[in-house]
Amino acid sequence: GTIVSDEVVEKRIAYDVSQALKNKPYHINVTAYEGRVLLSGEATSLEDRRKAEEIAVKSLDVQGVINEIAVMDPSSVSTRLSDTVLATKVRTAIIGNSTISLNQMKVAVERGIVYLMGVVTREEAQTAAQTAAKVSGVQKVVTCFSIATREEIDHRMKDLQQAKPSDE
């Protein structure tokens, strides 16, 4: 249910932002993880940046907003393509590290800046950030993690497994 809810939150906020900023140049991405929302990308004015944040804060099922929107011209298509490739490289590096799990996090990239979101232990947060930072092309790593104990995470993962419909 949480995964579906996060996707709905992302789509709803993205749509509401697009309606509020139509006819204005912007590039804003919305990433949600368990009700926490990360706004990243570019808006051409501080007013548009604030408007996007206001929309996210007021949106249903949002517990917190992290506004990382840069006030500048929207990034180019080539920059966005590079960011997509970089996000894949970071995910691959995280998957390759046996001490952390990509199942507990999301990776977003804007202009070479890697944003990591999820629910992890303090050690996993540190390892994920260090792993991401070592990937070629990463300019900076911003962690937006919620920190939990190993027991809390194991309990959450067990609940998620039990909530999955069977393949019968």
Protein described:
There is one protein chain. A hairpin with a 2-residue loop joins β1 and β2. The protein is of the alpha/beta class and 168 residues long. The model has no long low-confidence stretch (mean pLDDT 92). A 3-stranded mixed beta sheet has the order 1-2-3. A 3-stranded mixed beta sheet has the order 4-5-6. 46% of the residues lie in helices and 27% in strands. The longest helix is centred in the N-terminal third of the chain and has 19 residues. It is built from 5 helices and 6 strands, in the order αββαβαββαβα. α1 runs antiparallel to α2. The two termini are 20 Å apart. It is globular and about 45 Å long.
State which percent range the strand residues make up.
Answer: 25-35%
How confident is the prediction overall: mean pLDDT?
92
Radius of gyration: 17 Å
> Helix-strand pattern, N to C?
HEEHEHEEHEH
**How many beta-strand segments?**
6
Low-confidence regions: none
* Shape label: globular
Strand order of the largest sheet: 1-2-3
- Tally of helical runs: 5
Helix content: 40-55%
Largest sheet: 3 strands, mixed
